[in-house]
Q: What sequence folds into this?
């Protein structure tokens, strides 16, 4: 079995690097805004950052209620699904985590997600479809993956990534709009009419939001890979999660709630199927995740395409 602890460490390091790049991108966007708008207009920067941070923090703080509403998930008790409840409880005990709330989504597509601002306010939800098609070992792998998101504080990491991406997009939009409103005369005077600096600033403000979206997607993909590795640490059984992902790969149904706002929370994203969106995909390809888990089991690569 491959060293899943090494995979965990590598994915954590990659996340820190990606978040560092996003922080650097914020600095670049702020500098470009200063060049493009003139020093007297830099006051929009803290406004843009403040609005973005406040919006994402509010979403993060109330994420459990918001996600449950958007997905139609309903909280259940032990009597409703005792086997599922016991399975989750066993995993939380072995992982040293508090027992999360358990929810069910009435949807034929097999899928699951976790939400909540911290382990004390976590919710793990399963669709009725996944409960029908998966056996206990597969469900244990799925539940362990979702508990891994809780343990790794992925909602917080996602909020940080969304905050920086949102701040960059808002900052770029505000600067460009203000420039159009004012006609750009003061901007030209403040920058001494340097055309090279102006073109560079314009390009930075246009491209920065796209780069931020790419980095945010990369952070999300990395946290999914980290959750897979952490799930193996919880169960010591990569075969369960691997077989669950194979079941998802073979199933073509998609959850009814496939909004971009919540696509990243599902164990299989409903929006990442297009080959043209790989750079913006929030999840690694299922085939790639399955291959990694097979390597943990000591199963060699297959030649079937």
A:
């Amino acid at each position: 079995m491959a060293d899943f602890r090494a995979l965990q460490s590598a994915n954590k390091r990659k996340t820190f690097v990606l978040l560092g790049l996003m922080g650097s991108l914020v600095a670049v966007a702020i500098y470009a805004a200063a060049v493009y708008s003139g020093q007297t207009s830099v006051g929009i920067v803290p406004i843009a950052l403040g609005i973005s941070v406040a919006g994402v923090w509010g979403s993060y703080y109330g994420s459990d209620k918001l996600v449950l509403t958007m997905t139609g998930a309903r909280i259940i008790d032990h009597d409703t699904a005792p086997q599922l409840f016991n399975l989750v409880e066993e995993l939380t005990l072995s992982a040293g985590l508090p027992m999360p709330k358990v929810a069910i989504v009435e949807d034929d597509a097999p899928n699951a997600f976790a939400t909540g601002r911290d382990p004390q306010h976590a919710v793990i939800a399963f669709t009725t479809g996944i409960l029908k098609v998966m056996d206990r070992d597969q469900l244990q792998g799925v539940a362990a993956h979702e508990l891994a998101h809780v343990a790794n504080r992925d909602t917080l990491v996602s909020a940080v990534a969304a905050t920086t991406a949102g701040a960059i997009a808002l900052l770029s939009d505000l600067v460009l709009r203000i420039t159009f409103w004012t006609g750009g005369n003061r901007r030209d005077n403040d920058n001494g009419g340097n055309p090279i600096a102006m073109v560079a600033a314009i390009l930075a403000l246009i491209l920065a939001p796209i780069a931020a979206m790419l980095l945010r997607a990369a952070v999300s993909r990395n946290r999914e890979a980290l959750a897979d590795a952490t799930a193996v640490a919880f169960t010591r059984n990569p075969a369960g999660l691997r077989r669950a992902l194979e079941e998802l790969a073979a199933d073509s149904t998609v959850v009814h709630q496939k909004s971009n706002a919540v696509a990243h929370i599902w164990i299989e994203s409903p929006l990442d199927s297009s080959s043209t969106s790989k750079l913006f995909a929030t999840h690694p390809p299922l085939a790639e995740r399955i291959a990694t888990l097979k390597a943990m089991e000591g199963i060699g690569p297959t030649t079937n395409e």
